[in-house]
Amino acid sequence: MSTTDTGKTTEPDASGELGAAGSQLSTAPVETAMPGSFGGSRAPGAIGWITWTGREVVGWARWFWRQLTSMRVALILLFLLSLGAIPGSLIPQSGTDAQKVADFKDRHSLLGPVYDKLGLFHVYSSVWFSAIYILLFVSLIGCIVPRTWQFVGQLRGRPPGAPKRLTRLPAYATWRTGAAPEEVRETALKVLKQRRFRAHLDGDAVAAEKGYLRETGNLLFHIALVVMLVAFAWGQLFKSEGNKLIVEGDGFSNTLLQYDDFKSGNLFSNDDLTPFSFDLKNFTGTYERTGPNKGTPRTYQAEVTYSEGAYGKPRKKTVKVNEPLEIGDSKVYLVSHGYAPVVTVRDGKGEVVFHQPVPLLPLDANVTSQGAIKVMDGYRNAQGRSEQLGFSAFFVPTFAGAGKGTMFSQFPALDFPVLAVSGFHGSLGVDSGLPQNVYQLDTSKMKQFKDAKGAILKARLLPGETMKLPDGAGSITFEKDVKEWAGFQVTQQPGSDWALVGAFVAIFGLAGSLFIQRRRVWVRATTGTDGVTVVEMAGLGRSESAKLPEELGDLAALVHEQAPSAPEPGPDTPGSDQDTPDPHAVSAAEGAEKQ
Prior knowledge:
Blueprint: E1 2-5, H1 45-68, H2 71-90, H3 98-107, H4 111-118, H5 127-156, E2 171-177, H6 181-194, E3 198-202, E4 205-210, H7 212-238, E5 240-247, E6 251-253, E7 261-264, E8 276-287, E9 297-308, E10 315-320, E11 325-327, E12 330-346, E13 352-357, E14 361-362, E15 369-375, E16 388-396, E17 418-426, E18 446-448, E19 458-461, E20 466-469, E21 474-492, H8 496-515, E22 519-527, E23 533-541, H9 547-562
Antiparallel strand pairs: 1-2, 2-23, 3-4, 4-22, 5-7, 5-21, 6-8, 8-9, 9-10, 11-12, 12-13, 12-21, 14-15, 15-16, 16-17, 17-18, 17-19, 20-21, 22-23
C-alpha cells in the first residue's frame, strides 16, 4: 500500500474538477465584492428608468444585507460594542450614581456639557450604543437563520459522490488487491460507519463525511451570542437594585418607600417588585484577635425571619457574605455592618422625648463611626418654647483610653465602647420640606450648647453615663445597650440565568467549531485491465490540518487488512504496461503545497 499527501487540505471550488465533492464544507456565507451597476443597461423612456432604478435599489439592498450579515461586519460591531462600554465604566453614570454625575459636571464645566450631548453619562441607554447593539443583533440573526436552514439541508442529504480524479485531492492512498471490488466497497462502508462517518454507496465508490459537530458548534456559538444579547438587554431594562439599613429588631417590607436608595431599569415598574418581608433578629460578627489578620472578620452573618407574600409562613435564614437570601427573582445580600448606640434624651422636666438606637456610619475597618442624633418633636426648652435638638455623635467600639491621643477605634468588636457627643438647639430645617441626610446635621439655624465657662459643651460617654445640658435644658444618656445594624442590598436581575447559560453554550460551541474538523472521504474500487482490483482512497478537509492524512492512513490500514495488497505484476504480466497511479507523482490539489 502506498500513500501520499501534501500536508495541507483545501476546499476546491465546486465549479472545478471535483464538482459536488468540492462543494462547501460549511454554511458560512460567501463574501461578495463591491458591486457595480445592478440594473444593467437602461431601457429608454420612463418605464425603463423605473425598472432600472428598481433593480438598482434591490441590488444595493441585497449587497448591504450581505455585508451586514458577514462575519467581518459582525466582528467590527462586536469590537465597537466593547469600545462603547469603556466610557460606561470610566465615566459616572446617571442611572448608577446621579450624585457623582452632578459632581463631575460641577468640576468639569467644559467637558460636562460635551459628555452630556454625547450621552456619555447614560452610555447603555444612549442612541449610538443602542444602534450598535441592535445592528449586532440583526447581523447575528441574519447570519444564523439561512445557515441553519442550509445546515439542516446538509444533514438531510447524503455526502456527495466521489470526483472522477481522486488524485486531485490533498490526501490520497492507493493499492492493488485480489479482493473483488464489491467486497472492498462493503468493507470500506463498514469501516467508515464504525468510525462514525455518514457513508453510503455511490456507483463504484463509497462516499463518507464526518465532523458535522463543527458547524453545529458554530451555529450554537452564534445562537448563544444572541441569547446573551437578549438576556443582557432584558436585565438592563427590567433590573432593580435597592439598599436598606436595618437595626436589630427592626424589619423591612419590599416596597419602594422602604428603601434608603433605589434605582431600576427603564421598563421596571413597582408591580415587578417581589412581595416579601423580613426582620433582622440578630447580627453576629467575630474578628481575629492576633496575628497579621487582626481585625479581619471570622463570622459575619445576619439571622433573619422572612415570609413570602402577604400571608406567607415565617421562615428562618442566616444571610452571609456571598450567601444571599433568595426569594423569587429577588436576592437579598448582606453588604455592610455597623453599630447603633441606644440614646435617651430628656427635657428639663425629666420627660423622655427621644429613646431609640441611632445607627452610625463606619469610617474605617475598625468601625469608628460617625452620625447625628436628631430630636425633631416633643422637646421644650427651660422657657417652655418648642425647639429641636441635634447632637453630633462619634462612636468607637474599642476606645484606646484617655490620654492615648486618639479617638479612633482600635478593634471592630465592642470591647470598650465610647460615645462622644456635642449638642445644638434651634431648628433642624426639616420643616422646610427639603430632603436631608439623616447622618448629618444642618446647624445653619441652630446654636451650640456651651458650658458655664463659655466653652463648647461636649463629652465622652461610657455606657450608662449622662451628659447634662446647661440651664436646665435636659440631658442625653448613652444607654448600656448597643445594638448592631446590617446593610442589605436587594437586587432583581432578570435574564442573568439565561446569560450564564448562553456564556457556557458559547464556550462549548466555540470549542467545537475550533477543534472539530469537517472532512470527506471516498473509497473507490474498480477492476483494472489485468483483472486485479485497484483501490483508491482520498480525503478532503475544510481547513489545514495534519489530522486528515493521519486519519486517512488509519482508515486505509483498516480496509487494507480485509483487502490486502496483491503482488505487483511482472514485466510479462498482461497489462503490466498499464498506466497505474504513481503516488509519488500525484499532482497536488489546487492551492496546496507540494512536499
